[in-house]
Amino acid sequence: MHQKLMIVDFRSDTVTKPSKEMLEAMFSASVGDDVFGDDPSVNELERLSADIFGMEAAIYCPSGTMTNQIAIKCHTQPGNEVICDVTSHIYQYEGGGIAFNSGASVKLILGDKGRITARQVSENINADDVHKAHTSLVSLENTSNRGGGSCYDLDEIRDIRKICDENSLTLHLDGARLFNALVAKNQSAKEYGETFHSISICLSKSLGCPVGSLLLGTKDLVKKARRIRKVFGGGMRQAGYLAAAGIYALKNNITRLSQDHLHAGLIAEALAKKEFVSEIFPVETNIVIFSVGQPYTPVTLVAKLKESDILAYAISPVQVRFVTHLDITPDMVQKTIETIKSL
Ligand SMILES: Cc1ncc(COP(=O)(O)O)c(C=O)c1O
Fold first, then answer.
1. Residue 302: HSE in the Cβ half-sphere, 13 Å Cα cutoff
2. How far is CA 98 from CA 83, 87, 155, 160, 264, in A?
3. Distance 116 CA to ligand 1 centre (A)
4. pLDDT tens, 158-197?
5. Which of 42, 134, 187, 307 could staple 243 via S-S, CB 3.0–4.6 A?
6. 64 Cα to the center of ligand 1, angstroms
7. Model's pTM, two decimal places?
8. Cα–Cα distances in Å, from 221 out to 71, 110, 161, 168, 198?
9. Are 332 and 15 in contact, with CB atoms under 8 Å apart?
10. Ligand 1, closest atom to CA 174?
11. Residue 200 is inside which H or E element, if any?
C-alpha cells in the first residue's frame, strides 16, 4: 500500500478545507433568498457576528476585499483621502480598488510592521485647504499581513480614534485576521466594536471557512453597505449554505487559534538557528516572515522545501512567508522543523 502523500501547505491560511463537522453544518442549513432578506442562516450569522462585537449590524459578503471596499465606499466621497500604512492590504492587494470604486486618494504612512501611530495619523491629516484632498477615513489592519501577523496595542488604537473624533474622520479596521489578535493579546471583541466605525472580519482565513467575510457597523452603515454590495455584484441568493460554515466557525474555531500561534513560534525557532535566515519578524500570531540569504534566494528556498512537500510563499525578492492554520497538525510542524534543520 502507498502511504498517502502529506503536503504541508504554509502558503496561506486561506488554503484550509472545511472539516467534516463544518460540512455537516452546511448540508443541514436552512436557506432562502438572501437578496430578499429571507435566508435564516445568513440572518443568524449577521446577528451572531454583530453581537460578538457589540455592534448594531453586519452584512455577509463573499470576500474580505469586498467588505473593505464597501466600507471605504461608505466612508468616503470621490476626491477624499484615506490614511493607511504603506503595506495595507486595502492599498497593496485590492487591485487599486480605493481609486476604482471610491475615486479616493491615499496617504501612505511608513508604519512599524504595518502599524501606524496616533501621532502619524495626526500629522497626515490634510489642512482645510482647496489645494488638498479632504481627509475623511483612517484604515488600520490587525493583524497586519505584511507586518508578519503583528498586532496593535489597543491603547494606540484608542488614541487614533480620539484623533479621528477631533477631526471628524471615520475609523475602519481590516480585521481579516482580527481573531488571531484577540486570542494572542487576550483582548475582547467588544473593545474593538466600541472603537471602530466599521470592522471587516474574514471567515475564510484562520477560521477555516471556504468563503465569506462580514462587515460590521451601525444599522445605518450596514443599510448603505447593502446597497453598495448589490452594485458591486455581491448580492447572493441561498448563501445560507455558506453562512452555516461561518456560524460553525465562530462557535468552534476561535479559541484553537492559539495552537496555530504555537506552531508559528516553533517554526520561527527552527529558522532562527539557520545561517541563511537573517531578519525574522517577531512572531505574534500565525505568520512567520523572514529574510533569506546565501546559499538561497526566496525562490530557490521555496523550491527546495517543495522537494519535501512543504509549501511556503516567496513574498518579495528577499522574504519568505509561512502561515499556520487549522489544517496544519503537530506532525506536520515536526516534519517541517526536521526539514529546516537539514537545509
Ligand atoms: C489583511 C487582509 N485583508 C483583506 C484580505 C482580503 O480577503 P479576500 O481574499 O477574502 O478578498 C486579505 C487576504 O489575504 C488580507 O490578508
1. 21
2. 11, 14, 28, 21, 32
3. 19
4. 999 999 999 999 999 999 999 999 999 999 999 999 999 9
5. 42
6. 5
7. 0.97
8. 8, 29, 18, 16, 8
9. no
10. 3
11. strand 198-202
